[in-house]
Automatic annotation (TrEMBL):
Keywords: Oxidoreductase. Pfam families: Aldedh. Belongs to the aldehyde dehydrogenase family. It comes from the Bacteria. Signal peptide: none annotated. One of its GO terms (cellular component) is cytosol. One of its GO terms (molecular function) is succinate-semialdehyde dehydrogenase (NAD+) activity. The keyword 4Fe-4S does not apply. The active site is at E252. PANTHER family: SUCCINATE-SEMIALDEHYDE DEHYDROGENASE, MITOCHONDRIAL. This is Aldehyde dehydrogenase domain-containing protein. GO terms for biological process: gamma-aminobutyric acid catabolic process. Residues 16-473 form the Aldehyde dehydrogenase domain.
Length: 479
């Protein structure tokens, strides 16, 4: 382990700092329940210092060339890949996901840095045909300024890079508040950012009191934008808090993804898709399939194939060989997943497969529930756990209407061999992202994001840079 990566201090104005009063919060390994580190419990005061530092650094940074910013970002990308094993070790220790998956996330996280190193050079403006003969009209792109970023624990590295990389590429500064469960990945990424040449003050990481840090970020007139990934409830709160200063917002909030398996689907492909879309990260992703709608004609065959695959999943400590499902993040997550199962069983669902949850641990063995109905909690709330819930359908229009009957609109999936049905689902599903015959849609090259109450803005793709740029219109008159 490159021991310099394991930091128990915040990174503000290019300095590694602890709280004046020595206050800390523990970081817990969800596989063992052991405290693995302590990070500073900061609040408003340190956040304001970080905002000032970000503003000062950003004033210089925005004047650098896109190429200069690109070179530094590319170095950050290379350092992440060079330290992939150490970063993944930190991730599995604080988050629990299997080590192989943690390495996959580091590669995914680094891919955003590489992508935006390239996109930095493509923040093109426009010359617009003028309405006057003696004038010219320019629309140029400028960085928004200081960004407040707040991230969740389920992807402790990727959620950071897909905000920070486009922000830096655009010429912005960042004050980041990582999730309290997984601050160590964020701090390790800051070590590497510093080594890559991100200037002091441009990237600040403040751990501690979420309300105090979030309040300082949203109150500040210097912070021009909030970029948040997390629960819909906190997203709405930050949106309300941002109203007083009319901040720009990128919000990536909860999902409740439908996964539709038609009677003409390649069932084996659909099973491969659901194993990823349902069980990746122990079901703790916002694009996880929550409601699996299977056509009557293939319901029993699909269930049988799925149970066979789920039975073979190995659950345990993410460092143990061949483990595919690590622990859930904490006791509250375990209780929520169990309550969704209990609710479904009480309302008439049947457990097709599932071992009981071992008391006293955060491990949750995967479950398959069948004969689900639309009044059950899983039909209406994101479960965030390894529970495959199978609903029946027999009509495309009906299943599209049921799939759309939610306030969420993040990801949806459909499996069919018919091109006509593929377009019917792609166009009919009210979601920001649709996977047709594919269960893994996340990639740095595509615009990730939701509609309805799943959020605002897009991360990744060409569009990911737009979220950190303002358009400046200049009219050159009297020519
Ligand atoms: P989850 O339920 O997945 O933990 P949250 O929305 O609670 O989702 O958390 C996502 C991020 O939002 C975390 O970094 C968390 O600390 C932060 N957060 C939670 N409450 C607030 C708040 N009132 N203000 C700012 N950030 C918050």
């Amino acid at each position: 382990m490159h021991s310099a990566l394991l930091k128990q201090a915040c990174y503000v104005a290019g300095q590694w700092v602890t709280a004046h009063d020595g206050a800390t919060d523990p970081v817990i390994n969800p596989s063992t329940g052991q405290i693995i580190a302590q990070v500073p419990r900061m609040g408003r005061e340190m956040t304001l210092a970080a905002i000032d530092a970000a503003q000062q650094a950003q004033q210089q940074w925005k004047q650098t060339t896109a190429k200069a910013r690109s070179v530094i970002l590319r170095r950050w990308y290379a350092l992440m890949m060079e330290h992939i094993d150490d970063l993944a070790t930190i991730m599995t220790t604080e988050q629990g996901k299997p080590f192989v998956e943690a390495k996959g996330e580091i590669t995914y996280a680094a891919s955003f840095v590489e992508w935006f190193a390239e996109e930095a050079k493509r923040a093109y403006g426009e010359v617009i045909p003028s309405h006057k003969t003696d004038a010219r009209i320019l629309a140029s792109r400028e960085p928004m300024g200081v960004v407040g970023a707040i991230t969740p624990w389920n992807f402790p590295a990727a959620m950071i890079t897909r905000k920070c990389a486009p922000a830096f590429a655009a010429g912005c500064g960042v004050v980041l508040k990582p999730a309290p469960d997984t601050p160590l990945c964020a701090l390790a990424l800051a070590v590497l950012a510093e080594e890559a040449g991100i200037p002091a003050g441009l990237f600040n990481v403040v751990t501690g009191d979420a309300q105090a840090i979030g309040g300082a970020l949203t109150d500040s007139k210097t912070v021009k934008k909030i970029s948040f990934t997390g629960s819909t409830a906190v997203g709405k709160l930050l949106m309300a808090q941002s109203a007083a200063t009319v901040k720009k917002l990128s919000l990536e909030l909860g999902g409740n993804a439908p996964f539709i398996v038609c009677d003409d689907a390649d069932l084996d492909a659909a099973i491969e898709g659901i194993m990823i879309a349902k069980f990746r990260n122990a079901g703790q992703t916002c694009v996880c399939a929550n409601r699996i709608y299977v056509h009557d004609a293939v319901y029993d065959a699909f269930t049988e194939k799925l149970v066979a695959r789920v039975q073979a999943l190995k659950v345990g400590d993410g460092f143990a060989p061949e483990v595919q499902i690590g622990p859930l993040i904490n006791a509250a997550a375990v209780a929520k997943v169990q309550s969704h199962i209990d609710d479904a069983l009480a309302k008439g669902a049947r457990l097709a497969y599932g071992e009981p949850q071992p008391a006293g641990s955060f491990l949750f063995p995967p479950q398959v529930l069948v004969e689900m109905t639309d009044t059950m909690r899983i039909a209406n709330e994101e479960t965030f756990g390894p529970v495959a819930a199978l609903f029946r359908f027999n009509d495309d229009a009906d299943v599209i209407a049921r799939a759309n009957a939610t306030d969420s609109g993040l990801a949806a999936y459909a499996y069919t061999r018919s091109l006509q049905r593929a377009f019917r689902f792609s166009e009919g599903l009210e979601y920001g992202m649709v996977g047709i015959n594919e269960g893994l849609i996340s990639t740095e090259v595509a615009p990730f994001g939701g509609i309805k109450e799943s959020g605002l803005g897009r991360e990744g793709g060409r569009q990911g840079l737009d979220d950190y740029l303002e358009t400046k219109y200049t009219l050159l008159g009297g020519l």
